Amino acid sequence: MEAPLKGIRVIDLSRHLAGPYCSMLLADMGAEVIKVEQPGKGDETRTYGPPFIEGESVYFLSVNRNKKSITVNFQKDEGKDIIHRLIKKSDVSIENFRPGTLDKHGLGYNNAARINPKIIYASISGFGQTGPEKRRPGYDLSIQGMGGIMSLTGDPSGPPNKVGTSIADILAGIYTCQGILLALIARSKTGKGQLVDISLLDCQVSLLTYQAGIYFATGSVPRRIGNQHPTICPYETFKASDGYINIAVGNNKLWHKFCDLLGLDETENDPKFSSNPKRVENRDELFTIIEKIISAKKSTEWLKLFDEEEIPAGPILTVDKTVNHPQVQAREMVVDITHPKAGQIKLTGIPVKLSDTPGSIENPPPLLGQHTDEILLDVLGYSKDEITELRKSEVI
Questions:
Q1: pTM of structure
Q2: 9-206+326-392 domain in CATH 3.30.200.20?
Q3: Which of 43, 152, 176, 240 could form a disulfide with 15 if both were Cys (CB 3.0 to 4.6 A apart)?
């Protein structure tokens, strides 16, 4: 069976992380993604590092597989014409410039829709295409702060912390992919394309879920409580004799199994701890009781016991241990591929497993402008002489 997005062409004008992450998700599922880059420079993430492998940025390699790269200077009229011709022959366009920037070059949504009424045009920005702050620049770090996530992350006695990966960018990429797929479904019914407007701030607000719900219901502002859960207890990190483990006692059935395993006979039915709301209310006292017992054994001993009793618990793994974990390997979440400069490289795999039409990682991240001639010749119909002139004029 063909990949589900086979036959869908995407022109990707985005850079950095959110847009390229989205286009990678589409490419993994069979879409032809044409990554448009600035001649001589390319996507800024090609310079992000160290580390580099044979001059290739590991950051860039991590989110640009399965794509083709074409270099175009769309500030020149001839370059703008190339983009217009690509829009006419594409199903999807992705960009993450500040709102209004591409309009100045005739490459905004309204002009793209005139060129190709069926185009799905996805715009990713810090604050969206509307609202009083739509023109503000928005990077992952600043959005994590404004979106409430940092106020909830970290030790309560310390400073607010960002999440350890670029969650604002990555989530925006995922939502953009979802929006594009929804718009493609709508187009199959109406025959018309549309604008997909994605704001990094909107995406972060959507993560607040029950934390926002707590505020809406009580008026109380949720605060950092480390690794504790605001509405479930015990559901947090405990220190064994040789390191930390996570234990998630998510209901009363698990609570009784947990108490039996730890020998908490008196604690189990103590009115202060007999229900989840009571345990949350008295979490500090309960934590002290549990921590003393957990600290008496090694983490591996506890995890074995919890697994035997089917009590959700797990180790806190470093990245090296995570990517080499047997379950991660079995799910093909680490893949090897050969890059023309970097040689054999490893990439994270495809998380969405489709039984009949799975995605695949067929091609390594492209070299800058690697497919320029191919796309101009085969997709847009330029002649070799025209391509030579475009190169002389520094259009490509």
A1: 0.95
A2: no
A3: 43
